[in-house]
Write a structure and sequence with these properties.
Largest sheet of chain A: 4 strands, antiparallel
Strand content of chain A: 15-25%
Helix content of chain B: 25-40%
CATH superfamily of chain B: P-loop containing nucleotide triphosphate hydrolases
Radius of gyration of chain A: 24 Å
Strand content of chain B: 15-25%
GO molecular function (chain B): G protein activity; GDP binding; GTP binding; myosin V binding
Number of domains of chain B: 1
Bound molecules: guanosine-5'-triphosphate, magnesium ion
Number of helices of chain A: 15
Structural class of chain B: alpha/beta
Protein name (chain B): small monomeric GTPase
Shape of chain B: globular
Main location (chain B): other
CATH topology of chain B: Rossmann fold
Family (chain B): Belongs to the small GTPase superfamily. Rab family.
EC number (chain B): 3.6.5.2
Oligomer: heterodimer
Number of helices of chain B: 7
CATH class of chain B: Alpha Beta
Distance between the termini of chain B: 25 Å
Order of helices and strands of chain B: EHEEHEHHEHEHH
Shape of chain A: globular
CATH architecture of chain B: 3-Layer(aba) Sandwich
Chain lengths: ~600, ~220
């Protein structure tokens, strides 16, 4: 995504180090980190929550910016709309991260022994929030429309698995059962850090089941009882060993737990059965999105009603030869159920349809906070192949309700990345080494270090005909901040690019590595964007991290093997040549 | 056109001694409410608000309004959070510097806050609006309006006497800051793309503009 590439120019400097250089070239620039040890556990979690909110705002912003970069051609205008004027000025003074990233990294670093925290919230929450993906319920909000249903469960497919309290021994048990769910579902690899593209996850499955449809014809009952908005509390069907809750997650907030476990059960049925087709997007992404939609928003306090007055669209894409039969559908996210769905009538044969219809939602004004209006345009086909023509999302919590005039919005695509049904697009050759704290004598290193050596990729299969300008991006999750992100250089026009890039992440104990996941994604670099070919995830594949369910703990058996060897052989390089899979579970 | 959501994300940050009313002022601005109970801010917080900015000012013949998403950082005034709060200074485009009209020490500390800003903000001379808060407590006033104005003039920044309790001047102060930022942005953008740019579309005469530019143009943009 361009925004982050451009951003990286200011926010980051390359931090590769020679492969064997002992230190201190650390990914997180310890010298720049703040000493926040004076914070109490409660304060820490309080701050972490604020940072989490900021992180979400920023993801949304990055999404907005990347769209701007594609759509605004006037450079001066672009500079002001994107905030580049400010970033550039700041970059002259502050070479590194945003302050909030710095604090985030600093909080992450000052780990404290778990189990000493605020009993109400669960001991390690603060720390988790500082370093984690958004919490499950927040993720919900970010995830897009209904069509995402099939992918969001997938993301969380393993959360029932107990987190591994310490590596490496117990890891093996929890994992194998989850593999079948994760494989072969053709979840296309998507641009992982494409920010807050809410409907994005919905890109879910353009190829997995081409016969499937948008939701119109499906039986409502089946749908609403299985959608993510109101997950049924079905008992766990997986054969997860009944491991007792580990100390650090035993007290996780109930809302989190219940959400996740039910998703998990949902996902197994969704993915294995015929239900799958109900949730698949079908023809998403087949039509190049263009055009705009005009609507106004009004909240009627007397009737306690939100009124979405849909006026018209302009210059819609053609679903078929020179025609579309458009209609508009809305959801009030995070509710993705049928209750939340409203539709206009279909306008036949028009790329500039006039709707002039009001879609209404009964709710209290204060409940608008935290809701997002998802408005999508679809081509209706009598044979049932409805086609996605674009969408718009409006965060209602921050909408200016004084503004009741009709406004124009550009329609946005959901941008799935084609996977062509390929399971992998080549392989990545790398080596890793874990150096525990103090293991080199004299108290060195001061914290555990993870050394990564990205050597080369082999046998890449280009996305289109031609070649690949490849680079590899690495995160050590759950830290998905910029501070955690490392990139190799771009190697142009090669299907066997040699990177020879090394990096060091610090601040780890062995038990952190059991909760962590080193994610490597290989991208094709384009002038103003990038596209993912595939990736690998090295972790214990437990489906959860520090007690929170996460989709990205989806390592294959082979990948898990590498991570286990890493943990079992501290101080030694572990070599790995792994397929760049196209089915990484999307990261939020 | 841009993404349907908003046109600009503008980030402000409120700073000043503990208890001067930063949290209250922002709360008044975003929610129109006031809480007389003192709940000191832990480290950092922020609020958001959506506003529409009209470049020509309220009475100008306006082009279309710009949709602004404001992110308003609220810092803890307490000393112990200082290293953390100053880290956030660099993330903000403009600053609301508050003191408490009923607390002289908070006024004396304004200079220190300004030098902190000069050190840690995104540039040496960021846009700042000074607010003497708690103007509703007239009978407890310890800082004269003239004194405060003088100080503000010395730094070349606008000054407002605000009340988070009754809302007086609160929006005005924040909107003034927004106006400063939007104009600075315009200058920055102009400067880099139209080297000798003179034609501008805001309410100022071009000479005024140029003076302002000489004064403020030192930023790295
Ligand atoms: N009468 C009056 N009281 C105010 C005003 N603004 C704030 N207060 C009160 O002053 C106290 C402190 O206000 P806060 O807004 O919490 O102060 P702060 O600057 O955020 O303090 P820290 O978070 O510790 O940095 C609270 O009891 C407020 O109710 C005001 O304009 N008038
Ligand atoms: Mg406060």
């Amino acid at each position: 995504m361009l925004a982050s590439l451009v951003h990286a120019r200011h926010a980051e400097r390359p931090r590769g180090v020679p492969a064997v250089s002992p230190r201190p070239a650390m990914a997180l620039e310890p010298e720049a980190l703040l000493d926040l040890s004076f914070l109490t556990e409660e304060e820490r979690s309080c701050i972490a929550r604020v940072l989490q909110r900021d992180w979400q705002l920023r993801r949304r912003e990055e999404g907005r910016i990347s769209k701007l970069r594609k759509s605004v051609s006037d450079p001066a205008r672009l500079r002001s709309l994107t905030g580049d004027w400010f970033c550039d000025a700041r970059a002259q003074r502050h070479q590194h991260q945003l302050g909030s990233d710095l604090v985030r990294a600093s909080i992450r670093r000052r780990r404290r022994p778990r189990g000493t925290g605020d009993p109400e919230r669960g001991p390690s929450r603060g720390e988790l929030e500082a370093i984690d993906e958004p919490l499950a319920e927040e993720k919900e909000e970010e995830d897009g429309a209904l069509e995402t249903d099939q992918s969001s469960p997938t993301e969380e497919v393993q959360e029932a698995t107990e987190p591994q309290p310490s590596p490496p021994a117990p890891a093996a048990e929890g994992t194998p059962m989850s593999q079948p769910l994760l494989q072969g579902d053709n979840i296309p690899a998507r641009e992982q850090d494409s920010p807050a593209q809410p409907g994005d996850t919905g890109g879910g499955n353009p190829f997995g089941s081409s016969s499937s449809e948008e939701d119109e014809e499906e039986p409502d009952s089946a749908h609403s009882s299985h959608n993510a908005g109101q997950r049924p509390e079905t008992p766990q069907t997986d054969q997860t060993p009944p491991a007792p809750p580990s100390p650090q997650n035993g007290r996780s907030p109930p809302s989190l737990l219940s959400t996740s476990s039910s998703v998990s059960s949902l996902s197994s049925s969704t993915l294995s059965g015929s239900l799958m087709s109900l949730y698949s997007e079908g023809e998403l992404g087949r039509v190049a999105v263009r055009g705009r939609v005009q609507f106004s928003l009004r909240y009627d306090p007397a009737g306690k009603e939100l009124q979405v007055h849909v006026l018209r669209c302009r210059e819609l894409a053609e679903a078929k030869r020179q025609r579309s039969d458009p209609y508009i559908k809305t959801y009030l996210l995070p509710d993705k159920s049928n209750r939340s769905k409203r539709k206009t009538a279909v306008r036949k044969r028009s790329l500039d349809p006039v709707f002039n219809e009001t879609l209404k939602y009964k709710l209290e004004k204060r409940d608008l906070q935290g809701r997002t209006l998802n408005l999508s345009v679809w081509h209706h086909d009598s044979l049932g192949r409805n086609l996605f023509l674009g969408e718009v999302e409006v965060a209602l919590g921050t909408w200016d309700w004084a503004n009741t005039r009709p406004e124009w919005f550009s329609l946005q695509p959901r941008m799935p990345i084609p996977s062509d049904g390929l399971a992998s697009r080549g392989s990545l050759n790398l080596a890793l080494k874990f150096i525990p704290v103090g293991s080199e004598g004299g108290g060195m290193p001061p914290t555990g270090e993870l050394h990564i050596w990205v050597k080369d990729a082999q046998g890449l299969i280009p996305l289109q005909s031609g070649t690949v300008d490849a680079f590899v991006q690495c995160y050590v999750l759950p830290d998905d901040s910029k501070a955690s992100r490392q990139k190799t250089r771009v190697v142009k026009r090669s299907l066997n690019p040699l990177f020879n890039h090394t990096m060091v992440y610090d601040g780890f104990q062995a038990k952190d590595l059991a909760e962590a996941c080193a994610e490597f994604t290989l991208w094709h670099h384009e002038a103003f964007s990038k596209r993912q070919l595939g990736g690998i995830r090295l972790s214990l594949g437990t489906g959860s991290s520090y007690g929170l369910p996460v989709g990205w703990m989806d390592s294959t058996a082979e990948e898990q093997g590498v991570w286990k060897r890493l943990l079992q052989q501290p101080g030694r390089w572990v070599e790995a040549l792994l397929p760049l899979r196209t089915n990484l579970v999307p990261r939020a | 056109m841009s993404d349907g959501d908003y046109d600009y994300l503008i980030k402000f940050l409120a700073l000043g001694d503990s208890g001067v009313g930063k949290t209250s002022l922002l709360y008044q601005y975003t929610d129109g409410k006031f809480n007389s109970k003192f709940i000191t801010t832990v480290g950092i917080d922020f609020r958001e608000k959506r506003v529409v900015y009209r470049p020509n000012g309220p009475d100008g013949v306006g082009g279309r309004g710009q949709r602004i998403h404001l992110q308003l950082w609220d810092t803890a005034g307490q000393e112990r959070f200082r290293s953390l709060t100053t880290a956030f200074f660099r993330d903000a485009m403009g600053f609301l510097l508050l003191f408490d009209l009923t607390n002289e020490q908070s006024f004396l500390n304004v200079r220190n806050w300004i030098s902190q800003l000069q050190m840690h903000a995104y540039c040496e001379n960021p846009d700042i609006v000074l607010c003497g808060n708690k103007s509703d407590l007239e009978d407890q006033r310890m800082v004269k309006e003239e004194e405060a104005k003088e100080l503000a003039e010395k730094y070349g920044i606008p000054y407002f006497e605000t009340s988070a309790a009754n809302g007086n001047n609160v929006s005005k102060a924040i909107e003034t800051l927004l106006d400063l930022i939007m104009k600075r942005m315009e200058r920055c953008v102009d400067k880099s793309w139209i080297p000798e740019g003179v034609v501008r579309s805001n309410g100022h005469s071009s000479t005024e503009q140029l003076n302002e530019e000489q004064e403020k143009g030192r930023c790295g943009c």
